[in-house]
Design a protein that fits this description.
By secondary structure, the protein is α+β, with helices and mostly antiparallel strands. About 20% of the residues lie in helices and about 20% in strands. It has helices at about 15-25, 80-90, and strands at about 1-5, 35, 45-50, 55-60. Strand 1, helix 1 and strand 2 form a beta-alpha-beta unit.
Length: about 110
């Protein structure tokens, strides 16, 4: 899930954890990856509970900006493919997961 709101680059893990719990009313310990961006949109912070501890990591995009939704109150849910595109600095809105058809019995 990505937060469509902008956060301070000084926000630490417990501030982001409180943001997830208070603003989104979600359980930050559910294993979802919560993604936040800086004001300039050149940095991401990712927060995830891996079952043993809280992980916070940051990525800085050199020479570009991350594509971000317009500000809104609710978080935006991404598919795995969209998340991977976002993380690589690709416009995730143009990426869709291929639909897989179940095989049928003859």
């Amino acid at each position: 899930m990505i937060s469509a709101s902008i956060i301070s680059r000084r926000s630490k893990r417990y501030g982001l954890l409180a943001h997830v719990a208070n603003h989104f009313e979600l359980d930050p310990f559910d294993g979802a990856i919560y993604v936040f961006r800086s004001r300039r949109a050149d940095r991401l912070k990712l927060l995830v509970w891996d079952g043993t501890g809280l992980v916070l990591t940051m990525k800085r995009l050199n020479g570009g900006r991350f594509t971000w939704p317009k500000p809104q109150a609710d978080p935006v849910v991404l598919s795995k493919v969209q998340f991977e595109a976002l993380f690589e600095g690709i416009d995730w809105r143009a990426v869709t997961a291929a639909s897989v058809r179940k095989p049928s019995f003859l």
